[in-house]
Specification:
The chain contains 1 helix and 10 strands. It is mainly beta and 181 residues long. Keywords: Developmental protein.
């Protein structure tokens, strides 16, 4: 796994050669700060704690892409990537990373959902691939722990053809914090 400085050097080298850098993992991610509070409105922080996968130890440069979509799969907020996870243990990849949802909960339309795409680098194919995804619907937003199911790729933002990743009890573990003024 590359450290932050090595990644910067690699990206600079790619840019000088006219190569794409979009597929390179980010050591720092693209996480955004919490929005300013508004009276009577709630903001949501989601801590991505860990993900359970049968082959967790084999995943290279794993990270999670978080997006908020309407019922038609259209982005409602900027898409955010977590930094690369640094700790793997048995069947778990640990993140312990806070993601600030970039819209007040009351402003999200009916049918919206928060998506979590688990991605990792495949050296043989030389690109970053989505392994699985999970999502949280609006009625699941409440303070505290939540464990959500993992689905097979491709990511179905419209939530029409969902297939569980495995029959095994492997999930995405999250902790939600609501901030209300």
């Amino acid at each position: 796994m590359l450290n932050g400085k090595e990644l910067q050097v690699l990206k600079k080298s790619c840019l000088l050669q006219g190569l794409e850098t979009d597929l390179l993992p980010s050591a720092t991610g693209t996480l955004l700060p919490r929005l300013p509070s508004e009276p009577g409105m709630a903001l949501l922080t989601i801590k991505i704690e860990k993900i359970g996968l049968k082959d967790a130890g084999q995943c290279i440069d794993p990270y999670v892409t978080v997006s908020v979509k309407d019922a038609n799969g259209v982005d409602l907020t900027p898409v955010q990537d977590t930094p690369i996870a640094t700790r793997k243990e048995d069947i778990y990849i640990h993140f312990f990373i806070d993601v600030e949802i970039q819209k007040h909960i009351e402003k999200l339309p009916k049918g919206a959902a928060i998506f979590f795409e688990f991605k990792h680098y495949k050296p043989k194919k030389r690109f970053t691939s989505t392994k699985c995804f999970a999502f949280m619907e609006m009625d699941e937003i409440k303070a505290g722990q939540i464990v959500i199911e993992l689905y097979k790729k491709p990511t179905d933002f419209k939530r029409k053809k969902l297939h569980l990743l495995t029959k095994k009890p492997l999930y995405l573990h999250l902790h939600q914090t609501l901030h209300k003024e």
